[in-house]
Amino acid sequence: MTGYASWYGKEYHGRKTSSGEIYDMYALTAAHRTLHLGSEVKVTNLENGRTVDVRINDRGPFIEDRVIDLSYSAAKAIGMLNQGTARVRLDLLKIPTGSDSAGYLIQAGSFLMYENALQLKNTLERTCSPVFIETAETNERKYHRVRIGPIKDKDAAAAIISKLKKQNINSYLMKAD
Predict the structure, then answer these.
(1) Numbered ranges of CATH 2.40.40.10 in the chain
(2) What is the pLDDT confidence band of residue 64, given thresholds at 50, 70 and 90?
(3) What is the fold of 99-176?
(4) Can you tell me the distance from the alpha carbon of 27 to that of 20, in angstroms, rounded to the nearest whole number?
(5) Which residues contact 105 (CB under 8 A, 6 or more apart)?
(6) pTM, to two decimals
(7) FRET partner for 176 with CA separation of 20 to 30 A, picked from 12, 13, 17, 102?
(8) Architecture of domain 2-94
(9) Phi, psi dihedrals of residue 52, rounded to the nearest 5°
(10) Helix (H, G, I), strand (E, B) or coil at 155
């Protein structure tokens, strides 16, 4: 997802967020309209290439052309404090496990090279949502897994797998924790 990011700071510091946490402007957090609370997102400033990983703990932004509201520290990390907004790309790194994300996930691929995972993710986003890349490390290697979901209904997930099979994408269904 691409669009504009804004940031919020001192005026909200110490207030309760949508997740129930107290907002800490010095933490690497953000507000998003629809991502599961607890999701982790890589935010790339498209103007300077700087990135920051944030955890979604609040809802917003409430201005139509914005896709994410960053904490003060997150905005500082990608160099957008002075401008107030920046054009960004969001890459979903991880969705939370547990009751908030109950349902199913589809794993559509696992790659050693992040670029290959990103290429599949971009292809899948034309017909599926949400698609994300989850990185897992073993003692020897780092894998970039392309996943779709969570999907609440097992039949809907099976239909997506069938559609992927017709595109020669081998995938499998897994229960979201």
Answers:
(1) 2-94
(2) confident
(3) Alpha-Beta Plaits (3.30.70)
(4) 15
(5) 147, 148, 149, 150, 151, 173, 174, 175, 176
(6) 0.59
(7) 17
(8) Beta Barrel (2.40)
(9) -150, 140
(10) helix
Strand order in the sheet with 131-137: 131-137, 142-151, 103-111, 172-176
Q: Where in the chain is the domain with CATH 3.30.70.1070?
A: 99-176
Q: Which two tokens stand for residue 155?
A: 């039949």
Structure tokens at 52: 């920051």
- Only one residue has tokens 């904490």, namely 71
**Core vs surface per residue 113-136: b (16+ CB within 10 A) or e:** eeeebeebbebbeeebebbbbbee
- Per-residue pLDDT of 148-173, as tens digits, reads 887 888 888 889 999 999 999 988 88
Using left for φ > 0, alpha for ψ between -120 and 50, and beta otherwise, residue 170 falls in beta
Average pLDDT, stretch 112-123? 90
